[in-house]
Amino acid sequence: MSRQNYIFTSESVSEGHPDKVCDRISDAILDAFLSEEPEARVACETFATTNRVVIGGEVGLSDQARLATYMARIPDIARACIKDIGYEQDEFHHATCEITNLLHQQSAHIAQGVNASGDKDEGAGDQGIMFGYATNETDALMPAPIQFSHAILRRLAEVRKSGQEPLLRPDAKSQISVRYENGKPVGVTSIVLSTQHADESQSSADIRAIVEPYIRETLPDGWITDATEWWVNPTGTFVIGGPDGDAGLTGRKIIVDTYGGAAPHGGGAFSGKDPTKVDRSAAYAARYLAKNVVAAGMAERCTIQLSYAIGVSKPLSIYADTHGTGDVDASAIEAAIPKVMDLTPRGIRTHLQLNKPIYERTAAYGHFGRAPEADGGFSWERTDLVDALKASV
Fold this sequence. Notes:
With 393 residues, the chain is α+β, with helices and mostly antiparallel strands. The chain has eleven helices and 13 strands.
């Protein structure tokens, strides 16, 4: 039996964190290509440092002759992301930073494994293992530590951008340690918050006075007690931030993007990748399936693993684990999954409507635990498989 009483910690990073700046640019470029061509192939990586952004990777279009036209838009897309995040500091400014675009045409050797032709179904864009997870400990069916770490930073971004807290700046990290009793979250033992700020004269106490009310309103009532430890800007001054303070790179925050360490991760990053890349789309499908299993009342917790090989359309394996909380045998869940969802790369994209420009919004504050949106954003958070799963076990 799994432990019932323990403390578990997860962290999040803000949209202004250097790595998240890069994730945002990569996903914004992906959205731009999907807006023009839903079947576009994109694998976009971004690097950011002091007053410089470098974008590389590959793009595949049905008419490669049009690629130059699209390429001309890349610097403006990157600058728009940086501006919206809020960077206007001397050494990283949306208007003055140098943008270098090194995107190029997709490798024909990769394309031949992925594209459908003749009697051959479209294959997976790469080999790999993908995990999805859900737990009933929060309304979003997400682990509490990561869900509330995200929520804190999202709230601070809101008040920064609205002008309500003009002394806050974009770069920030949060971390909370959650105490569990009988397997359920009941309180927070420590809160860590480091945020970039405007003035070197501001102390850690000054920053705590700004952020504490928003943290308290974000966390559930009673979770913060007199015993909760606070560590706000524990190193002191944090004025130099963003890519000027620390270089950023796409895909370096995969645990922040998923379950905060509460569940396994296959190792593949998401941002900048079109949905033929199963390390993105199949991870979304696995979350969708795990969430529907929990929403159906089949288990309190569920992990789903899928595996793929490049150029092969069907998943090589399907694995389910209900961590001793299941009302339905895990093997029955494994048998039901392919009955309720086509897990080929095209089947996933069709079921979840992934060939849409819906990815820039995923780049910060987690890919999971978000509300499904009317235009198809976060479609993998729907719970519309509940009845089909119940009927199939």
